[in-house]
């Protein structure tokens, strides 16, 4: 009986404003048969640091987050009114 833990980035989505949504799947297996699976999710906004991220996430961010995309994202964030204003 060999228990193993497998952690994979199984989904990377690019939203309209080029924010990345990342899903990580943690699988526990016994002799190759999956016993359990759980998910973690997080988002990265254009221009945010990708340090420590999976190489696939870094590659996608590098391809999508051009200087124009980052500037447009920052301008859109600055233009939003605070809640209650």
Describe this structure in words.
- By secondary structure, the chain is α+β, with helices and mostly antiparallel strands.
- The chain has one domain.
- It is 27% helix and 41% strand.
- It is elongated, with a radius of gyration of 17 Å.
- The mean pLDDT is 94.
Structural key phrases:
single chain, 85 residues, alpha+beta, three-stranded antiparallel sheet, 2 helices, 41% strand
Number of helices: 2
Please identify the structural class as seen in this structure: alpha+beta
Q: Rounded to an integer, what's the Rg over CA atoms?
A: 17 Å
Helix content: 25-40%
Give the total of beta strands: 3
Using the alpha-carbon principal axes, give the shape: elongated
Number of domains: 1
The percent range for strand residues is 35-45%
Rounded mean pLDDT score: 94
Please give the alpha-carbon distance between the first and last residues: 60 Å
Largest sheet: 3 strands, antiparallel
Give me the side-by-side strand order of the main sheet: 1-2-3
Could you give the order of the helices and strands?
Answer: EEEHH
Spans of at least 5 consecutive residues whose pLDDT stays below 50 are none
């Amino acid at each position: 009986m060999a228990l193993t833990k497998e952690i994979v980035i199984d989904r990377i989505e690019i939203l309209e404003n080029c924010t990345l949504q990342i899903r990580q799947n943690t699988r526990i297996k016994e002799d190759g048969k999956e016993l359990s699976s759980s998910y973690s999710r997080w988002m990265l906004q254009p221009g945010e640091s990708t340090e420590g991220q999976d190489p696939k996430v870094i590659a996608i961010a590098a391809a999508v987050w051009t200087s124009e995309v980052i500037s447009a994202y920052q301008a859109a964030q600055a233009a939003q009114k605070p809640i209650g204003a």
